[in-house]
Design a protein that fits this description.
20% of the residues lie in helices and 12% in strands. The protein has two helices and eight strands; from the N terminus they run βββββββαβα. 7% of the residues are buried. About 4% of the residues have low confidence.
């Protein structure tokens, strides 16, 4: 079973510690956190209002932080077979089990009237993607996880076809 790593990738803007501030609420029923000290121009509705009147100016991002999973590396292009970035088939540096790199073609068409089908990731690509996203994943379970992933996608596609068969397109 997969577990999620508790530490985000370094430099990821989703986990920027500089923007976090201590929060307090107006009580157990208030779902909105508010900063402990709001500037006077933003607290026009009084001290109990957690929402600022004026939107704060966003900080401009000067560069993409290294290792951030939200941004693909330079030179990555979309694979025309599945419209996804080319996923590495190389093992992780600390990987102890050799994972298969063969990919399975799904029964799901890419476009109506087209013979092209979506392509599922190989176990190695699946493992690399989980690691890139910060998931701690037992290598010995990856092939089973890929089988389940593919099975669920195929079953979901059959449900879509069943639903669509009720309507004339």
């Amino acid at each position: 079973m997969s577990t999620r790593s508790t530490t985000p990738p370094p430099g990821c803007p989703m986990h920027n510690k500089e923007e976090e501030a201590p929060v307090a609420t107006d009580g157990p029923s208030c779902p909105m956190p508010k900063k402990q000290q709001a500037p006077p121009q933003q607290a026009e509705d009084g001290p109990s209002c957690p929402m600022p009147k004026k939107a704060a100016e966003p900080k401009p991002m000067t560069s993409i932080p290294p290792g951030c999973p939200m941004h693909k590396a330079d030179g990555d292009e979309l694979n025309k077979l599945n419209m996804m970035p080319n996923l590495a088939q190389t093992p992780q540096s600390d990987q102890t089990i050799e994972l298969p790199t063969e990919r399975v073609i799904s029964s799901i068409p890419k476009a109506k009237g087209d013979d092209a089908r979506w392509e599922y990731p190989s176990p190695q690509q699946f493992y690399n993607a989980l690691r890139r996203k910060g998931w701690e994943t037992p290598e010995e379970e990856i092939e089973t996880m890929v089988d389940i992933h593919n099975f669920l996608n195929e079953e979901a596609w059959q449900e879509v076809l069943k639903w669509e068969s009720k309507y004339k397109w």
